[in-house]
Specification:
148 residues; mainly alpha
Length: 148
Amino acid sequence: MTLLARGAGRRNMASAGLAKSAELEARENQTAAAIDQAEQAQKMNTLGTGAGFGAMYGIKQAGAAKAAAAATQDAAAGVLADAAGAELAALEAGKTAAAVGEASSAVVASAGAPAATAAPSALTTVASFAAPIAIGLGAAFLISELFD
């Protein structure tokens, strides 16, 4: 075997070794990319779960607030009906307009009725969910960073 043939054989072995090394490195890169994607997916899953818990709490609180607002409106309507009844009774008794107004004011003041509030708009309702969702996302982020 000549010196040139021996050199060509060594060059072919070196090329085959480099090709095998490049193939192993490509597999390692693919594995590392898959691990990074799995970690990112797990983080997004945690954040989504936290936001879901926050939204669930916000919806529950909005339902309670809506029920409370309905009760307040019903109470205010009842007081206003009582005041109207007092005005009607005063008018039937032949009292003056000033006396009628005083009777109405007395009924409203004695009942301590809260002012009737308008029903919340859709934007207000959605905005009321923002704080619980943000808190849920914050907690999920902290958990994600704690175990990262």
